[in-house]
Amino acid sequence: MDTEAQPTERDRSSSPSGAGPEQDPDPRGPEGRSRSSLAARLTDWVPGGRVTLSVLLCLVLLLLLNVFVAQPFQIPSGSMEQGLRIGDRVLVNKLAYRFGAGPRRGDVVVFDGTGYFGDADYIKRVVGVGGDHVVCCDKGGRIAVNGLPVDESSFLHPGDSPSAVPFDVVVPDGTLFVLGDHRGDSSDSRDHLGSPGGGMIPVGDVIGRADWIVWPYAHWTRLTRPGAYARVPAAGDRGGAHG
């Protein structure tokens, strides 16, 4: 009679000689389980659970976008009519000048006017950049930049002249000469020529470039740079165009 004990299923499964490497039954692995546990703990900790957590994450994302990428700005006055009306909201591109590029003539920019225009943010059009010679007005009643008259008819408020105030300025390096499109209803560089900074805006105080009108929906449009400014020659070079 064979008295040798027969191995049971339990013996075979626990035998070290016949067992392969232990398999993790969770396909997510340890890292996946760790992330899942963290999310579960956060969900349990936040009042309202997963819905509240999702809302908070969206708010944080919007805040980061608002601080570093794009910011809405409400038009407070009629100084940029007829293109921008009171109450319009524009989207300001805060990355436009952050990687080596600087404001260009014709750009519509939002800037901090503290110490120059007043303790507020302003929106104006760039007419002159560092080194430019800006004059108003030439014999044809137009603004001239570096000797070239600029046709502003595509954006100037109907009935406005380029300027009722004559000026002849050279824009210092690192600054901008800015004007509103509604010249008869705009306090801009012309009005601050005798103020600290001579009415010029430091490039470092520019918050960003206004690229889109986003509200109201009926005014939705992209703000483009007028072609008239693209033809202006660089300072000291009347023979070539400066883009």
Report a brief summary of the structure.
With 243 residues, this protein is α+β, with helices and mostly antiparallel strands. It has helices at residues 9-14, 29-45, 49-68, 227-230; strands spanning 70-74, 89-93, 108-112, 121-128, 133-136, 144-145, 148-149, 167-170, 175-179, 201-202, 206-215, 221-222.
Written description of the protein model:
With 243 residues, this protein is α+β, with helices and mostly antiparallel strands. The chain folds into two domains: 29-68, no CATH class; 72-230, Ribbon (Umud Fragment, subunit A). Helices cover 19% and strands 22% of the residues. The protein contains four helices and twelve strands, in the order αααββββββββββββα. The protein has helices spanning 9-14, 29-45, 49-68, 227-230; strands spanning 70-74, 89-93, 108-112, 121-128, 133-136, 144-145, 148-149, 167-170, 175-179, 201-202, 206-215, 221-222. The strands form two sheets. Strands 1, 2, 3, 4, 9, 10, 11 and 12 form an eight-stranded antiparallel β-sheet that branches. A four-stranded antiparallel β-sheet has the order 7-6-5-8, with no helix packed on it. A hairpin with an 8-residue loop joins strand 3 and strand 4 (121-128). Helix 2 (29-45) crosses helix 3. The termini are far apart. Mean pLDDT is 80; it is low at 1-5, 7-20, 28-35, 62-66 and 239-243.
CATH architecture of the largest domain, by name, is Ribbon
Number of helices: 4
Mind telling me the C-alpha Rg? 32 Å
Average pLDDT figure: 80
Oligomer: single chain
Shape: globular
Number of domains: 2
Low-confidence stretches: 1-5, 7-20, 28-35, 62-66, 239-243
State the CATH class of the largest domain.
Mainly Beta
Largest sheet: 8 strands, antiparallel
Helix content: 10-25%
Structural class based on helices, strands and sheet pairing: alpha+beta
Order of helices and strands: HHHEEEEEEEEEEEEH
CATH superfamily of the largest domain: Umud Fragment, subunit A
Strand content: 15-25%
N→C terminal distance: 104 Å
Number of beta strands: 12
